[in-house]
Amino acid sequence: MPILEPPTSMNSAHIRSHLKELEDEAIYVLREFAGQFERPTLLFSGGKDSILLTHLSRKAFYPARIPFPLLHIDTGQNFVETIDFRDHMVKQLGASLVVRYVQDSIDLGRVKDETGPGSTRNGLQTVTLLDAIRELRIDAALGGGRRDEEKARAKERFFSHRDLFGQWDPKNQRPELWNLFNGRHRAGENFRVFPLSNWTEMDVWQYIAQEKIEIPNLYFAHIRPVVKRGDVWLATSDVVELFPDERPEERLVRFRTVGDATCTGAVESTASTLDEIIAEVAAARMTERSGRADDRRGETAMEDRKRQGYF
Amino acid sequence: MAHLTEEKPMDLLRFTTAGSVDDGKSSLIGRLLYDTKSIFEDQLEAIERASEQLGDGQIQLALLTDGLRAEREQKITIDVAYRYFATPRRKFIIADTPGHIQYTRNMVTGASTADLAIILVDARKGLQTQSRRHAYISSLLGIKQLVLAVNKMDLVEYSQIVFDEIEREFRDYTASLGGVTIQAIPISALYGDNVVDAGDRIPWYTGPTLLKYLDEVSPPDALDHLPFRMAVQYVIRPHQDFRGLAGRVGSGTIRLGETLQVLPSKRKSVITAIDTFDGQLKSAQAGDSVVISLADDLDISRGDTLVSETDPPQLANGVRATVAWMHEEPLRLGQDLIALHGSQFVKAQIQRFVHAVNIDDLSAVDTDRLSLNEIGVVEVVFGCGLPVDPYSQNRATGGFVLIDPDTNVTVGACMVESALHDSKIQNLAFRTVRAQQVSVVNLQVAEALRSEIRSRGQAAVIVGSEFAAVAPSIMSQDVFVIVLDPRGLESRGPLVDWVVSMVDSLFGLGENTI
Ligand SMILES: Nc1nc2c(ncn2[C@@H]2O[C@H](COP(=O)(O)OP(=O)(O)O)[C@@H](O)[C@H]2O)c(=O)[nH]1
Questions:
Q1: What global pTM score does this model have?
Q2: What value of ipTM does the predicted structure carry?
Q3: Which of A256, B72, B412, B481 is the least crowded, having the fewest Cβ atoms under 10 Å away?
Q4: Burial of A102 (0-12, 13-18, 19+ CB in 10 A)
């Protein structure tokens, strides 16, 4: 392995780039996460943020392997590309993957599936997740949440405390000073840890480009059958039930976030390289999550779901 | 927001803002986000719609940040909110905090990670108590760059006299804080004067606009030139031949081949590798997350600190510190606490209140407790030695937080002033050393102690040579003494194990600590 030269300007004018600072900060948080908890687990959703988290985890513990498992809560309504990508990535890293299925929660009668057009299992994930946390005795779950994503997240901590029921109490969050993260907790309580708190969507894309991180093709422009629902394009598939008047059409689209196929909208785009995506983000007309039907169910949708223990 | 053809990499500046309701903080932040195009169109549409409902034609930029007023009305938690914007040169992180006294804890939290503070003043009202308070807290937390933003200049007819008077008063006040740089800027957040563009309504002001200043101000002195400090966060052992100490350099610079000291063991060893995923480094400096390998296979774990061999910090069993109290229940003498410093959780207690600080005029006030949002100077003692530096010299090792062991809630923030000499530590239970570092000298003494300690439930551990000096005073107190000798570490007999386990049960952190 090559020995890297120190930066040429070691004097006072030496600039720490924002991406380097964000990376070093995230690695610091990841090591606190692994150091303070007994059963830390990375929540892997298949989206670019959790792919980025996995990449940073690999960096944080190099040359060792990632010292915690990845947990995927599978709604059974994922894009095929997401699952393929997940399996490929896990194999490449030698990471350990645990999958829990929303379908199992439905079969057990823990939750009731939504039916009809517009239905989604996105909300049901919460129950499966909380069950998995209890079953696997997870005391800290790593998430890719960022503070710039949504109003409710602007006040989120790096170490976010959840009570016995997995609930987030915005009134009872611990002050977080300097880089001192207090992860002390009682048995049964747990934490969500967010190393990407200070990243913006632009930072994420710039970093993915800088590090040449592989991401699923879904993020790049491709032709696929979609229907217009409200003002988003929804990819048609087995899991998306159509309204009677909806006619699928082929469009050149890409996804800006990748969640469930039932509620992740695509945007029309010709961006087929990372640089083009960055150019597009720079000129973005919509915030990232605005293509997600689950946030539109009410102004305070995110806050409500967070209280219930959503990612 | 776009930075496609960057010639130079962007750097990052963190700043904090504080202001009372209606000073215009939300408008100012909204304007910075808006004019740097950090607002997406759907957010903009949402506020345009909301602004229409309010009437009056102006876009209510304050709506972008969920202003303090809105938070109050909707009973949303008042808390530090983090916001982001960027120019082609720099990414900014704003810690947005309310400014009223009841939110001191939020100001302290926001200031703890900031490089710079914007003190917002309403030109009509002039300098308020809360502006002084914010300046004091900023400087207490080590912020050296203050921007005095005199807002609502449009409502005082852009008067230079008004502005000059506020600036003069502010400079008078901050002179006592020492070592801070001040830039005063007359602005109107509502009309945008001097926020991003200068405009032509304030011709008498020739300084930079707020954004230009934020963009060009040199980042605070990096901690690179300070003595080396790094808390070990994690030990990386992929296989038998590799034992890497993972951490983020808190201060200083290290180079391959240099000798480091490990605290608290005080063992020394040479750096044989500095690893990162992207390759090995010849040197690392403050801010870098790295993995360090040493020549000797020392027993080092999370909680230990790697420090400069030539300029180590004090290993203090107690400190004099300024504490900002953040909990509804007041802080009291002798209350059980846990201190989190670096990557270590240790027992702690307040042994003395030196005084409380009246934040409004900085005068010292006698006290025997500190209530929520009060700031005071105290003596804190620790369950084992912590490597501390004065906060004013080193932010990386000078700050720690206090945690309530019953609820695990973070209840206080402390800035170290100085280490306490061991002779100043009253409660002998806190004059301990790490059990692993010692062995017993005197078998009879130790045996005799066993039953005594059991019956009294209290003991002090004294390192060998100190014993003669302190013995008489200790014997007169209701405390028992274990005498330990720092020599003979290698010969750990069964008796040593007994002492170790006893000391652990008396002073150790117990199983629910980490
Ligand atoms: N005339 C004038 N009004 C302002 C200015 N800045 C803010 N305001 C108004 O002052 C009120 C309070 O502002 P806001 O930003 O909500 O203050 P906050 O409570 O500090 O966040 C709002 O009605 C703003 O429109 C200014 O520079 N000039």
A1: 0.85
A2: 0.88
A3: B72
A4: buried
